Amino acid sequence: MSHAPAFPFPRPDSLGPPPEYARLREKSPLSRVTVWGDQSAWLVTRYDDVRAVLSDARLGVQPPGASVPGNASLMQDPPEHTRLRGLVSKAFAARQVQDLAPRVAGFAAELVDAMAAGGPRADIVGALARPLPLAVIGTYLGIPEADREEFRERADAIEDGTGALAVWERLTAYLSEVVARKRRAPGDDLLSALIALHDEDGVALSTDELVQVATSLLLGGYGTTANAISVGVLLLAPDNGFRQLRERPSLLGAAVEEVLRYQSGRTGVAVVRYAHHDVELHGERIAAGEAVLVPLDAANRDPERFPDPDRFALTRSATGHVAFGHGAHHCVGAALARVELTEAFRALARTLPGLRPVTPVARIPWTRTREELYVDQGPASIVVEW
Questions:
Q1: Which of 172, 206, 350, 378 has the fewest C-beta atoms under 10 angstroms from its C-beta?
Q2: Does residue 56 lie in a domain region?
């Protein structure tokens, strides 16, 4: 399929989806593309198709019959995923994310107050967007505060590709030590709760499962949320968005959902699914073994679902977006991320409502210079003033 266009597509607008999505959504909602150099895959671009693919049990996160040595993460298919997901979800429910909201608010207020005291300029990525989720997920999982700066350096290295494999190995080795300590002396944290859980057959999570789940939660709860906060500042600061939130705090919930809808995809290009059986869509046969690419920003910019989708609208009802995915692999930390964005924006609106970026959006550096399917991207720094 040498004639199939290469994916990912060019993205001339740093905050917008590739223009090609709109054309394909209209003319060819299921189309062939080339990925990973020379391999053919299918691409869906409509909201309804994205949700259908992500919820179809015939499409898995691994190729059919594939066995990844040592994979004990949530990126597996049933029955392994069903068991792991059930245990992790139980632990999250037991911790009650909303109970953590006052602590998240406290972290956010402290960070924004420190920004204000050191003003009138700051890099909001380094001052708020990254420290906040690091403090929250570290507290939630029970990572010692003294170790969090080292974790941040390792997570940043994985995100920007600097010796990622070696850094990943050091991170998992460190988390193995944390798990061992918490087995001996459990605390009041999510990791201790995960250690204590057993499935319906009375089987507990193995050390490898605990380490890989903890690694995924740490990296997902840190980088992805930091990127969403950073992009949210770029979206809210123009047109007095933070002043509006200060005057009308009731808009916070809608603002968070609209930021999530608008920024998804720019902080991660596409979800990948593999057909485990032949699947028909739009009159085409997706053969068993073929890959289907699911760009979440294509779905979240579908005008059939979100009128005038390329306009950021603070008062829009953006419920139903797929920024956290959909189906069995819907992000397990979605509720926690929403709390973090809410409290970050609340603190900025209260203390620095006139905040604005110094650098035009087009000149803001991003963490990666090229797009990859699986890697989150976000602003490397955003200098703001007030």
A1: 206
A2: no
Give the tens place of pLDDT for each residue, 300-357.
999 999 999 999 999 999 999 999 999 999 998 899 999 999 999 999 999 999 999 9
Given the structure tokens 């690419």, which residue do they identify? 293
Contacts with 159 (C-beta within 8 Å, 6 or more apart), sequence order? 223, 367, 368, 375, 376
- Asked whether residue 371 carries a pLDDT value surpassing 60, the answer given is no
User: How far apart, in whole angstroms, are the C-alpha atoms of residue 17 and residue 292?
Assistant: 18
The residue-averaged pLDDT of 281-295 equals: 96
SS3 content of the chain, % helix, strand, coil (to 5): 50, 10, 35
Q: Check if the beta carbon of residue 108 is closer than 8 Å to that of residue 128.
A: yes
Is residue 278 included in any domain, yes or no?
Answer: no
Residue 255 belongs to a domain: yes
> Which H or E run contains 366?
none
Q: What is the CATH number of the domain that holds 171?
A: 1.10.630.10
Output the DSSP codes for 264-302: TTTTS--EEEEESS-EEETTEEE-TT-EEEE-HHHHHT-
CA distance 273 to 58: 10
Q: In the chain, count of helices (H) and strands (E)?
A: 15, 10
Predicted confidence at residue 352, as pLDDT, reads 97
In a domain, 304, yes or no: no
Give the model confidence (pLDDT) of 140-174 as tens digits. Answer: 889 888 888 877 887 777 666 666 678 788 888 88
Interatomic CA distance for residues 28 and 13, integer angstroms: 22
pLDDT tens per residue, range 40-87:
999 999 999 999 999 999 999 999 987 776 778 888 999 999 999 998
**Farthest-apart Cα atoms in the chain, separation:** 61
Angstrom distance (rounded) from CA 269 to CA 372: 7
**Selection from 345, 350, 379 nearest residue 365 by Cα:** 379
Give the type of residue at 152.
R
